Write a sequence for this structure.
């Protein structure tokens, strides 16, 4: 059990990281933070966090270091690169990567840190920026069970549903399975609205019907209305889902697992990015289908 | 408002039709039934229903005729064909087609019956055999609003969520949009479990995680466990979903609406039927993905 006196370092204060760090502070944890751009840092220091000048410096002043960055190369850089967390490696330090990347990266990082006696958990999240703000994230964790147990209060400060999934990489593996569903559901929601619009149906009513039975989903209830209202602000960015789909495709290729649904939605998000809409929310996929059909959802 | 003294005719006593007819009887309606094979008829007559020898005879003894048959040709045959309902056409008769087919068929039937002063509603359902047994179906209705209003008590005897969607065909249009989601969700559930199995994850735990967040769906919660338990008994048959996907593909072709997700899952169910698994439940799609990947979900 980690006491609140534990010092937490937080690297990556983006759309997800900033509210997660804030929730830790609300629960009484002392934070040292680091971010590439400085604006978010000032916001956190004004609330009482200490600012560090590098990931290494974060680790020097912390017992547990959490990173929440965008991409696998970023994770490797802040943890294993120059001025990275590994340069402050010591027995007793725990590192938690809450970014989404591949199980293979998680296993590689766990190995590199274990050589320096640093504990490591891969703990990606689901629930978007709303879940991050509300402290209701689902967190899926891989690594040693005893390390998971000791970090549970930290996870509970940021999320509602905390799952121990198995050894290193199991958290990331679970997250990729989650993203398979999230991506394909976004396609289902979009195609259904496009077809409904073609039929001239009242789309608000259509969503109500679909949500009441065997077609119901989180995606339909949460992204469906946004598509109808032409609200493409990101809860989760299209570019980030595309990155996750890329990880899944690579795994599927290596293992020779044919995933025709993932392949289809992967190509469509490739089109979304070509359309310069990667910074929009994943529901922007609907606009790419509109483009393919030369027809609007309305 | 239709009084319980209204005489209801019911044509088609299959997996869905039989429990729907039974629920009408439980609510006190007098039923005259017809089915191609006789075993289900005996079951209903033993409960007090009258048996008819043709759809025409059903209509002669009824104020409201409901049909719940498999395919568009069956619907046209029992309603418009020789010895069909139309041969008993008269002012005051109402026909409700609760089968799933295309909006175009609904409009065609509505027109043919209107010439004979017969009212028509298209009212396909969602919720599977379980919903039919429990009387909790979602029912999506197209046709004249006043006819819908007068039939509401009949619908409420079979379903929980009753939706008026607009003019003739709107019920079928809504159902096809529902099937877009149902089919693509089945692919999402199947691919996610296949990938999770490849990663060696505990699949029961995986479903729990996925169901708790942005990946949650009726499909995942209801069909996911069946796939893991190798239970491929039909709640809704793969062959029937394939038929619906075919209707959707035809509509999409005519309207030039590209639906890449539907197209993918349509082809996969084509494979399921080639694999002689059309009589299994839709979740049997997972076994076709296993075949493609030469790998089991376990």
């Amino acid at each position: 059990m980690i006491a609140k006196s534990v010092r937490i370092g937080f690297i990556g204060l983006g759309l997800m990281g900033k509210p997660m760090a804030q929730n830790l502070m609300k629960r009484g944890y002392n934070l040292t933070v680091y971010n590439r751009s400085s604006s978010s840092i000032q916001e956190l220091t004004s609330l009482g966090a200490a600012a560090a000048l590098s990931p290494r410096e974060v680790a020097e002043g912390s017992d547990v270091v959490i990173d929440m960055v965008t991409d696998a190369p970023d994770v490797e850089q802040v943890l294993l690169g120059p001025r990275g967390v590994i340069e402050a490696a010591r027995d007793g330090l725990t590192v938690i990567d809450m970014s989404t990347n591949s199980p293979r990266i998680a296993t590689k990082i766990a190995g590199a840190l274990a050589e320096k006696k640093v504990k490591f958990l891969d703990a990606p999240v689901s629930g978007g920026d709303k879940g991050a703000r509300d402290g209701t994230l689902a967190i899926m964790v891989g690594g040693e069970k005893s390390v998971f147990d000791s970090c549970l209060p930290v996870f509970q400060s940021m999320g509602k549903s905390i799952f121990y999934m198995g050894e290193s990489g199991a958290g990331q593996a679970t997250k990729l399975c989650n993203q398979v569903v999230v991506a394909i559901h976004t396609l289902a929601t979009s195609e259904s609205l496009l077809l409904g619009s073609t039929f001239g149906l009242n789309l608000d009513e259509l969503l109500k019907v679909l949500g009441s039975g065997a077609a119901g989903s989180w995606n339909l209830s949460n992204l469906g209305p946004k598509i109808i209202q032409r609200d493409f602000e990101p809860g989760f960015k299209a570019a980030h889902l595309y990155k996750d789909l890329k990880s899944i495709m690579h795994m599927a290729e290596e293992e020779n697992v044919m995933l025709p649904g993932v392949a289809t939605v992967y190509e469509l998000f490739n089109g979304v990015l070509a359309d310069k809409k990667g910074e929009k929310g994943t529901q922007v996929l609907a606009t790419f289908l509109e483009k393919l059909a030369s027809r609007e959802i309305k």
Chain A touches chain B through 74 residues (CB under 8 Å). The longest helix of chain A spans residues 170-198. DSSP finds 13 helices and nine strands in chain A.
